[in-house]
Amino acid sequence: MVTRSKKPSKQRKAHFRAPIHRRYKMMSAHLSPELREKHGFRSLPVVKGDRVRIMRGKFGKLKIEGRVQEVDLRRLRIYVENATFEKEDGVQRFYPIHPSNVMITKLNTKDRLRRERINKRKVKKELVEEPPEEELIEEIEEGVDEEEVIEEEEFELEPDTDEASVETENAEESSEEADDET
Fold this sequence. Notes:
Elements: H1 8-16, H2 20-26, E1 28-31, H3 33-39, E2 43-45, E3 51-54, E4 65-72, E5 77-86, E6 92-97, E7 102-106, H4 112-128, H5 133-143, H6 163-181
Parallel strand pairs: 1-7
Antiparallel strand pairs: 1-2, 3-4, 3-7, 4-5, 5-6
């Protein structure tokens, strides 16, 4: 979480009083293996319109799959179309499900900003990935030529200006300015 404290009470406080931009990140769910392979990352925040499969809990045993109807950032729950219960008066209600208990099977990419975020994460992932060690070793061996190796003996370093002489020059200039003022 955000806090550095080890106290459970402070951890809970930070969790339940988190601002909206942090709550959005808390609403992340795992991607299906196909989406993970396609996009190159493991999880993504759930949004309205995503298709999810419920993996755990009361509806997890049934492996219910459906579209996300609502995302409640205040309660940190999502509502899936096929996960409902009937109240005593006969009204059907959506069952609140925590996003960690679902897996995203199809992304809702109607939102331009979400498409940009997904593409940005793909590009970041490609930039971060390093080539295998064999390629690195070959690049190092190719890049180093004996002619290009510069020996330290070829360079003669110029002596630095003496710091004490610079200080005395500054002091002389300041004393001359003081004499001119009087």
